[in-house]
């Protein structure tokens, strides 16, 4: 596995976003407001972190395409490269600590 894959999956917010995209149809866009759900967390703070840190990183890796004007995220051209790892996380979610999925 590549370091880039581990970098992409290394943060809970990035994992949640990528898993949400995995659950969408291939051509579907996801409103950023629906991309990461946080219970008991400041949503505004999470969205700022996404916009300034996580989304640019995932977009550079080409795992996502981010339309900043519309506030929507879609699968990027390299999403298929990360898809098997995401499916593995989802398939074994009950065996993993809660913070991993």
Describe this structure in words.
With 101 residues, the chain is mainly alpha-helical. The protein has one domain (3-100): Arc Repressor Mutant, subunit A (Orthogonal Bundle), CATH 1.10.10. 52% of the residues lie in helices and 10% in strands. The protein has 5 helices and 3 strands. It has a 3-stranded antiparallel beta sheet. Helix 2 (12-22) packs across helix 5.
Question: Which features would summarize this protein structure in a list?
Answer:
101 residues, mainly alpha, Arc Repressor Mutant, subunit A, three-stranded antiparallel β-sheet, 3 strands, globular
| Low-confidence parts | none
Give the strand content: 5-15%
Q: What pattern of helices and strands is seen along the backbone? A: HHEHHEEH
The N- and C-terminal alpha carbons lie at a distance of 19 Å
Architecture (CATH level 2) name: Orthogonal Bundle
What fold name goes in the CATH topology slot?
Arc Repressor Mutant, subunit A
Structural class: mainly alpha
The rough form would be described as globular
Q: What is the gyration radius calculated from CA atoms?
A: 13 Å
- Strand line-up in the sheet with most strands: 1-3-2
Number of helices: 5
Kindly provide the name of the CATH class: Mainly Alpha
Q: Helicity, in percent?
A: 40-55%
Strand tally: 3
How many structurally independent domains? 1
Mean pLDDT: 85
Q: Sheet bearing the most strands, described?
A: 3 strands, antiparallel
For CATH, the homologous superfamily is named as Winged helix-like DNA-binding domain superfamily/Winged helix DNA-binding domain
